[in-house]
Amino acid sequence: MKVLVATSSTQGDVDGDYSFCVPGEILWITMVCDTDRLYPEKGCGCGRGFGGLTSHRATTTAEVADLDITEADMGLAVRTSLTDQGWLAPEIAEMHDEIVAETVELVRALAEPLPEGTIVRRRLDEFHAFAPPAAP
Ligand SMILES: [Zn+2]
Question: What contacts 1, CB < 8 A, 6 or more positions away?
Fold first, then answer.
């Protein structure tokens, strides 16, 4: 399936860009804090970021990649990461399946229609796709 992976491509082209992920790691659409939602220019920057499933860090630049993984594989990666990060608390065990499925679906819906190599940037709940820069 097509997913989003962390990329250094176009990193730094936009003011406030940041990249703390491991290049190539699979990303998820992270939650946005209230400060960023209310004051997108003055918040912590999470409203512009994607989360790394492995590093648990964030980046403002994502790239569409068609990886040889199934949605079930992606679901396992999401479940493991969100559990490790503390999002899937035991108190809400009955919601875990739904949270994992929604997280996979967000990525799938965003990446599937886009050609591989497309750069995706985010502003809160809006996502913008850019053709990859031409090779030098
Ligand atoms: Zn924030």
Answer: 66, 67, 69, 70, 71, 74, 108, 111, 112
What is the CA(29)–ligand 1 centre distance, in A? 13
Measured distance CA(126)–CA(66) in Å, rounded:
22
- Cα(130) to centroid(ligand 1), Å: 24
Q: How far is the CA of 89 from the centre of ligand 1 (A)?
A: 21
**H and E: helices and strands count for the chain:** 3, 7
The CA 45 to ligand 1 mean position distance, Å, reads 5
- Taking ligand 1, which is a single-atom ion, which protein residues have CB atoms under 5 Å away? 33, 36, 43-44, 46
Q: DSSP state, 118? A: -
Q: How many CB atoms lie within 10 A of CB 120?
A: 20
pLDDT digit string (tens) for 4-23? 999 999 999 999 999 999 99
Per-residue pLDDT tens digits for 56-88: 999 999 999 999 999 999 999 999 999 999 999
